[in-house]
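Fold this complex.
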Amino acid sequence: MGEPRVDQVGPAKVVGRLAPSPTGRMHLGNIYACLAAWLGVRSQGSCGVLRLRIEDIDTPRVVKDAGRWIMDDLAWLGLDWDGEVVYQSQRADAYSQALKLLESQQLIGGQPLVYPCFCSRADIRAASAPNEGDGFIVYPGTCRGLSHRIVDERLARGQRHSLRIAVPDQPDESDAICCFDDLIFGPQSFNLPRQVGDVVVQRSDGLVSYQLAVTVDDLAMGVNQIVRGRDLLRSTAIQMWIRNHLQPQAPRVQYAHLPLIDGVDGRRMSKRFGSPDLGSLRREGWTARQVLGVCGWLLGLLDRPRPVSVQELLDGFTWNMLAADHKDRKLDLSKLEVSGAKPNL
Ligand code: GLU
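Structure:
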């Protein structure tokens, strides 16, 4: 594994992270997640450390200047972080060392832990039954059983391929089940072969995947509290599997997955769907206290949106307050406006 680029902290600390992707300006859903991560760490006083990692690994999707906007917006909201900012784009060496370490391992039974996959997205879609209606497709394992001869032949021809990490192939093997206790969603259990499958660790364009990059970074940065949307619950299972192969003795991580925020159209808040971002809200005259009030309310910390500071939200913060209601939220900004919540929130 690559040496951590950030200073080590003692074992008694809670080390959290803000991990925004600079694919655009942050929207309310991103801020809501950053606020929860900030509260989780800052509620620990001097025993909490919060890192900032700019997840700019997916270079084709990175928007110029978005990293700077994100830092400016976090500072404007009063969501501070500790130590140097870590940029995934500068950690290629750590990722390739991690990949080598995984490539040197095998599953029980001799299956290489990492194997090349020559399937296109269309091949995979055609060969898979959609899983649980959330669009996540469990890789059907097409390339897992290819003979050495075929693999060598295709590699020699320079055929485009990704690299996948193998999970146990028998659903009843003892290590096929990944369990963790989520601070918000409670006990979780994923069957790796049935519900997750062999995920990509290096994409066919040569970039390391999100799953590998975050696992390597969280280990290197000593992160032991991860806060993010519940759409990543399943990713947690695969990241725990990867983590276990990179550093079996690594300290355990506390996970807190948050309910998702939908817009009025029922679609998840996302940069892709043009959800209101901090750029437009700030231009419309929203104050930091108003934005925090809406996010604090979405987290279940306030019974209605009202202007607050981060310090006020911190008073008496516990994860139980968030765990009380983990249904997804629907946010209708125009209603907040109509009810006078904005701009006189
Ligand atoms: N960069 C991801 C995002 O902005 C966060 C991923 C994670 O928390 O692991 O959604």
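The two ends are 48 Å apart (CA to CA).
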